[in-house]
């Protein structure tokens, strides 16, 4: 295990500051707010060269530190906190729950070995790192449906839990935006599991709620190419929006069960839209006054806006990569001289930042920034702080890049 290090800056290029990520690919970026101090932070996940079976990392980056970089001299982005794990981390989530005397915070991480790791951030946020596992909870034991724990190790000073293993890499973890004790995990094994946090340490920390299995991802009885879930979001508090490697955009209401066999299995998913053969690599939600719209990034390079309330769906291609797959999306509300809702798109070797409200009103100047990159975009997010806006993105050459939008 390596010791805590800062991320060192390379030379600035075209308003971009590029930092070494110590040979790791930054696979996801999410913003969270400390419930006690109200300070904003970035939660990032890493995988070594993006490969499975290679070591990964979860880390907290200071937003104020990122925005203070000017490119002069030896600048650093400090890792406020990190956790090292033996497998690559593909997805990460922060959960803050009300608890006796304040808040209970967890980090949820999806690993390339198929596990969902849970870390107690409240107990450890003043430390610099966590480097060993505690105990593991499995959904099944010898085929039984009951969730049972298996202790591995339980030191008193921190807590970690590893949920039922997906058959292969975990592709997404998303907390419910209304009930943040509820979260979903998806994997390359074509399964989606819904879990509930109890907020109390012990053998009932996490409860298995329900499952969207391979058969529930089928959109018809004759479907052969099902694919796996590449990305998901809670469309509302009971409905999951799912994107698949076979190019399907699906909705699944987790309240509806099959009614036969395993009572925990959700009903068949509803297909909203299908690409012309390419995978959907990411999806994002845009909530405006007219409702909730879904934005997809697919293998053809198209970024498509879909209103699932329209029957049939009328997809609108809002931007496209030139002979490049569209890989990553983020919809973010930022405040500079005014408030904007920006869509950040990561392609194979470029990125675009678009103003969604200008696009919606059919203004021509909706493109905020376009930039070529040296490698495929692995993660992307646009943030504002102190009246300034910046796009932070990871690339597969093991860099963290910061682009100023001013």
From TrEMBL:
Highest taxon in the source lineage: Eukaryota
InterPro entries referenced in this protein's UniProt entry, alphabetically: WD40/YVTN_repeat-like_dom_sf, WD40_repeat_dom_sf, WD40_rpt
GO-annotated cellular components: nucleus
Protein name listed in UniProt: WD40 repeat domain-containing protein
Species, as recorded: Halteria grandinella
